[in-house]
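Running log. JK asked me to keep both predictions on one page so they can be read side by side. First protein, sequence followed by its tokens:
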Amino acid sequence: MPKPTAELRKDYIQDKYVINAPQREGRPHDLEVPQKIKSYENPEDSVFHPKNVKNKKATLTIGRESNWRIKVIPNDYPAVSLDNPKAYGMQEVVIETPDPEPELEDLPLGHIVELLESYAARTKEIQKIDRIQYIIIFKNEGGRAGASIRHSHSQIFATDFIPPHLLDKAQKANEYKLKNGSEVYCDVIKKEKDGPRAVWQDKHIACFTPYASMHNYECWIMPKRHVDNITGLKKAELKSFAKILKHVLARINELGLSYNYYFHQVIFDDNQHLYMKITPRGSFWAGVEIGSGIIINTISPEAAAKFYRKGVDKL
């Protein structure tokens, strides 16, 4: 059987390049990086335990105040704030469960739907704030993904500054639409939903591994309907989204990997197509990646999709 060979791949729309190099997966390692943060010996040690946040003013609470399921609070150590004109914005923490022990994928489907609804509710309110132009909702799970607290949580970060790569992305998406008469990510869904990188789909949501994956086992979840931010998703779409998200995160957990997920929301860009990008941290960028900007990925997206497809028939 021939050995796999490397292939240079380009992002769907931006000038981002990946060398798909599965033959490097077997190279030797003698250094290990911690993946997961160990569990609490005492649950009340978590800073997000109900006992430790009962006096914090919440911007959103799901459930009764005395028995909440999800609570959104201001970040105690924000990088931006509404009273700082030099770094204007806001940052919130979404405590996904009062219990410090379960991972997000361990929670019931209905609870994950409520989490997505919480993201939508806060997006709806935050985008009303004067000068806010950009909202990113993200989750760091595990030490390698940048998490400092084990208790399951995610964050909402909003600023008056739109990252340059998103401005570039918007420009290229507009050029694509002028040239082809269609939205680029709607076309991406049509191309990927039934191909070798497809993971799962129903009438609402498509899940696949992107052609030029920048991370091992990178996975995208996209609504089939063109929606520019999460406030536009309907209940049935949120349920489908939650269903495949729970599955993908469970599979990543089987690998023992940390991960990030996130989605961008540019407030005044109706042409953007909402999608969640899930990036397991099975590898880290070294000299080639940092120096050249070209990413080397040792897990092909086709192999990653095959991994994720295991068990999707039961969804």
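And the second, directly underneath as requested:
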Amino acid sequence: MKPSYNNQISWRAPSNIALIKYWGKKDGQFPMNPSLSFSLEKCHTEMSLIYRPASELNVNFTFEGNIKTSFGDKIKKYLTSIAQKYSWMNELEFEINSKNSFPHSSGIASSASSFAALALCLTDLITSKENKPNDFFEMASDLARQGSGSAARSVFAGYSSWGQTALIKNSSDNYARPLLNNIHPSFLKIKNVICVVDANEKSVSSTQGHALMANHPMKEMRIQQVHQQLENLLLILESGDWNAFAQLVEAEALTLHALMLTSQPSFILLKPNTLNLIQEIQSLRKSGHQVCFTLDAGANLHLLYDPSENQMIEQKMLAWKESGYLLNAIFDGVGSGPSKLA
């Protein structure tokens, strides 16, 4: 007879969109370079962690009510790694239930929000068991990073950075740091539309792409470049200079995909309609609109804009759908961070 459930912990965590890109890993799930992102408000993962005594560590994982064996195996491997430090976890069985507020394969980093939500649940569990003082969100960020690098930034509200750099006090490769000060008000209310141009699974995963950076011919140049880009962006975020923001953010997005194009072997994740939208957005900015784009490691594009452009953006979304450029549009903005659920 199975023992009864002992407890349940539930958290909601946001996805995030990087403005300074993390691309390339060092051993132990550490970043090759620092990155900077903002968390989204509406695109999030809700996760419940139910645990009970067991003879060995085991995991049952469901996503939106369906058993997902492959991801369940990935989570078991992740928990087994964490249990090396917290040995009492080896005597628990976990039932993990997850759901997203956004569709799969929509250009939103679901691994970031999923591992951030799981890490918050685990941090809650660990602190209740060990009853020791710690920085809760720093610990959660460290645990999240071990599952998915970009998840380290999803345990914080607004803007955050991850990766060791002299530009940010107390920065670390182990966990992200929230950027609480010196963000201009205009960048705190920035809007983001995820423009879905392709709903298929990527031909090359982010994990494979990160691995190709180890021997990339432009690796050292990229590391030097990204520190300069980070310094420039921190100054821009403080000043509120939209045009400078747009130029830098777009350059970072295109650099990410240029690194893919020049990998050995090379690969292309952009689609024809990604390029069509890039040209449309750059044309809008040339005509005086406060808009720009960024890209994750995929074909789908994030359109960033000032709230004063709301009406124009809504009209453009309809026009781009009618023209066939766009499959779907998901409206979002800078988020208020994770929250514990009842």
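Observation for JK regarding the second prediction: Confidence is low (pLDDT under 50) at residues 1-5.
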